[in-house]
Design goal:
rod-shaped; single chain; Dna Ligase, domain 1; 205 residues; mainly alpha; 7 helices; Endolytic transglycosylase MltG
Length: 205
């Protein structure tokens, strides 16, 4: 029992010593890292760039935009194309030669007078001149007049020129018993059928 107890005490003290040593080592490592960071913070930009180049690295500002390889290639192509566009010479507009204009022909004063003079208008002639309307003639037929008396009255008034033809036409339409008395309006040379229709119809009062 005594041996085991002394062994346990020795083991526990050894563990404590080991833990203390580890803490001391960690504290020393942290202090070394802290000193390195403080020294790096004191370095200038040029010194940082030199150290980065020695390690095949590149120092980039926080404001710089990080680009991939493809984006960087596109940017370089755009810059080269813009540079070529500015170097290209634009054609000089001042070197254009203007073609001489042909002189305008002078206008004679007589031509101006002729242009300003009013043109005589031709009289418009109608192709189909209207015939003057024949004057109407009023013929009074007495009550009880027969066909022959009506034909004579119409011939005297100049409405018909052939009494025999009118009487023949009237008999064919049996107008002897249909003759009305009154004043009728006719036109010289009027058609027999129109005259018979008027005579056999009572005129308006």
């Amino acid at each position: 029992m005594i041996k085991n107890r002394s062994f346990m005490i020795g083991l526990g003290s050894g563990l404590l010593v080991g833990v203390l040593l580890l803490q001391l080592m960690n504290a020393g490592a942290n202090q070394e890292i802290l000193s390195q960071t403080t020294e790096a913070g004191k370095l200038t930009k040029e010194q940082l760039q030199e150290q980065a180049e020695a390690m095949d690295m590149k120092v980039i500002d926080a404001e710089d935009k990080l680009m991939t390889e493809e984006e960087w290639k596109r940017q370089m192509i755009d810059k080269s194309s813009k540079a070529q566009g500015t170097d290209a010479k634009t054609p000089d507009a001042g070197n254009k030669t203007e073609e001489p204009k042909t002189p305008e022909q002078p206008v004679s004063p007589t031509s101006k007078i002729n242009d300003q003079a009013p043109k005589a208008q031709k009289p418009v002639v109608s192709k189909n001149p209207e015939k003057p309307a024949s004057p109407s003639v009023n013929v009074k037929i007495a009550s009880g007049s027969n066909l022959t008396a009506v034909a004579d009255k119409l011939k005297q008034s100049g409405i018909i020129s052939d009494t025999a033809s009118f009487i023949k036409k009237g008999r064919s339409q049996k107008m002897s018993t249909k003759i009305q008395s009154g004043t009728f309006e006719f036109t010289p040379g009027e058609d027999f059928n129109s005259i018979i229709a008027k005579i056999t119809t009572k005129p308006p009062s």
